[in-house]
Amino acid sequence: MILRNAWYVAAWSHEVVENQPLGRMLCDEPIVLWRSAGRAVGLSDRCTHRGVPLSLGKIVDGVLQCGYHGVCFDAQGACVKIPGQGVPQSALPARAYPLVERHGFVWFWFGEAAYADPDLIADAHVADDPGWAAVGERILVEAAHELIIENLNNHSHVQYVHPQIGSAGMADAESHMQRIGDHVESKHWLLNCPAPPHFAKAGNFTGPVDRWFDTTFVPPSTVVLDLGCAVAGTGAPEGNRSEAIAFAQLHLMTPETATTTHYFWVYARNFALSDKAVTEQIRVTAQETFEEDRVILESQQRSLNRDPKAPLMNIAVDATSIVVTRVREEIAARPLRELTPAAR
Amino acid sequence: MILRNAWYVAAWSHEVVENQPLGRMLCDEPIVLWRSAGRAVGLSDRCTHRGVPLSLGKIVDGVLQCGYHGVCFDAQGACVKIPGQGVPQSALPARAYPLVERHGFVWFWFGEAAYADPDLIADAHVADDPGWAAVGERILVEAAHELIIENLNNHSHVQYVHPQIGSAGMADAESHMQRIGDHVESKHWLLNCPAPPHFAKAGNFTGPVDRWFDTTFVPPSTVVLDLGCAVAGTGAPEGNRSEAIAFAQLHLMTPETATTTHYFWVYARNFALSDKAVTEQIRVTAQETFEEDRVILESQQRSLNRDPKAPLMNIAVDATSIVVTRVREEIAARPLRELTPAAR
Amino acid sequence: MILRNAWYVAAWSHEVVENQPLGRMLCDEPIVLWRSAGRAVGLSDRCTHRGVPLSLGKIVDGVLQCGYHGVCFDAQGACVKIPGQGVPQSALPARAYPLVERHGFVWFWFGEAAYADPDLIADAHVADDPGWAAVGERILVEAAHELIIENLNNHSHVQYVHPQIGSAGMADAESHMQRIGDHVESKHWLLNCPAPPHFAKAGNFTGPVDRWFDTTFVPPSTVVLDLGCAVAGTGAPEGNRSEAIAFAQLHLMTPETATTTHYFWVYARNFALSDKAVTEQIRVTAQETFEEDRVILESQQRSLNRDPKAPLMNIAVDATSIVVTRVREEIAARPLRELTPAAR
Predict the structure, then answer these.
(1) How far apart are CA C146 and CA C158, in angstroms?
(2) How far does the CA of residue C177 sit from the closest CA of chain B (Å)?
(3) Which of B161, B172, B313 sits opposite A67 (nearest CB)?
(4) What is the ipTM of this complex?
């Protein structure tokens, strides 16, 4: 289920280049993005004359000219030129999507334009906050965004899927889950455990650590992770992170189609900000980690496609993702007029 | 919509070789072609015994022997041998298609055999007329033949899609369109304009030219182009082509399926007939031009497949292709007994 | 039609390795196989928690642990561990398949477990009988197993499809066909004919031979071939094989899906048992032969897919395969309680 009245990431800001149309399937609709006098704009990627993708065209005098017969559309989608004739009042416009650029991303509003309140955009400040050093990419995953949301909201998979960042016992860690408005938080501690390899290397830990793994779901399709570890017994659970390293991860899932996803991720740290070796270690670990997830997620999607009605069971570690699913269903059923920024 | 009672090109004559079966999907039906004592013949490419393509078999004693169990069919499709038994009266024949060879092409009649009048075959004489030097090929385009017919009958696309042969202002050139029987002609002039690069090179034009671009649609699926240019002001619009170069293009579109097309093209000239460098220039330009069309057409087809009911609009430069579509619809609705050669 | 209450080959025994999950689509269902303390076991390859293939997991303490969240299943399919909680009574089991290992194959029962009588397994003893030297492989054919069964039960295709082992006149050889319970035998002799190339080489035949080609269909999906040749006139038809070479071929077809097949084959001989050159000649000939069949079968499948209702005809050489089809239909219609080992 693609939540309709919501902001999704369309692209990294650097992907949308001045006067260069970029075609991308988003929320099962073809959309063309470009930048005009610095401002990112987005239209339905389909000329209203003969259906050709407008992303095959070019920007001429600030408007998007179809590459087939030269019909032109402005940034609001109005048809402003039809070669060989004047432009009649009845000329079919292209649908324009509200776009906002924030924290290094171009966000687009998929639903009713009148409700496109930028305050509803998920907080992604760590992506470009000078207090954090961030790496990030976009990968295309052949699995539904719901499966990725579920993946991230079930902490126990880290233990089984990701040897570099998982810890034995994560599945048994107590979840402290809390719904706050439409956000769902879930916090986990593992005390006095071996540092997982990636953390040990990044933080030079040689002895046991206290590690935390906290998730926050933000509608429609974002999961923010706060994770890290501290030298065991130095008070991290009580809030002292002076002996800790911390990472903030953003997971921004935009449906490409109902069963494929543009997965934008950001992996930020608040230590060794200018150490390029650490940046590189994080990038490599992140890529390996996402490939581990990809194998699971794409196999799961194929399995569900093959037999969508086979019975499945919920287990204890699904508690958070079950609430997340319920929140998403509530939002889908909610009348448009009740669309307001989430509680926090 | 595939017009059923009509001649289509099945193959170049040189593709149909003595005693060598050639399987090809034509009009959404598998057909096997071969040449027997010089004559091209064609059957349904499906053995009536177990459905195996007959094109996997071989010609034995002048008949086509299935490669699986040796059942044989003659050029009329009669089952003439069943190994291991006699041939019963009830043996299922293979469907035979009326075939005519003309101007270097093998044409097949897709509909009721009784109406297969060779006079209905589109005029393609420039393909093998000694007064013309012709190059040609077959390409497979993943777009419906209707989209290619429309492409060719809208002159304005040349300006936007084909930099080597297009001219600024083509979209604004007046169309003189005329329906003559089931043919649709459309003529365009651009006076005193720069010669497009391909024409300038082929004709050694250094100054401005008068160029023409005339199209004729011939049912079911042929478009003939008469195009060229003359030194500006030398009377080409009045009929004097002494200072001109002229090209005749044949575009013969045979549906492979409802949404893919065997596109046979011929690019002929009536000057520098034996100049191989000109021939090569034309071939290269033609191939580049068709690849430019392919990108548009295949993207358009995918776009239409994705959302076949999205509204589209007609514009002024569609005038000819709208008439062409109407002619094709008339033909489709016409009773078989009214099938007669077109008015010219 | 996949006969449901029947034994099929799941894998060669050597493919199922101790503690290594092997995922394979069998009878249109995903199945995971592994070996535990020497015994081959098989479950539905789908975790009952979130649908992820269990074959992505690993064997831990003798049970299969899902690679996503660590849910574990034993060899009977019981869910025996759910990380993060105890295992409730209601935990969904994975379906377990009865498995029997015999003659170098792992066989699985696809239907009701209560009827999984190992006496119903087709006789494949030549695959590991010390009196025979056997080579064999598994190939994946993109054609329905029914088409392969039909292929093998129509002797005449050998003449047309397989130049190394076919003989002119095979289509005309008389078939002596006999149904014995659910088995269907068919015997053919060609007397005083040239030895086909593969036989001539394997048996050093320089003159004419008497050759036989006998098939036995064994439900659900096995065809056993007894084929060979003797110096002409040395009494082979009367049972004297002293001047003969004989091959036993097993063809064990397991549906992967309704239209694709795992084709397990065994090519055994009872002469020159330790001659590696003969083994290699047989392997190469067998591979070539199966590739010849593959071209036909996969083309036939595509042809039938395209037009499943086009009329086809039966001919004399189909006699055996028509009876085989009837037997399979009888078995499909038979009440489960009548499931008993076949008559011989």
Answers:
(1) 18
(2) 15
(3) B161
(4) 0.94
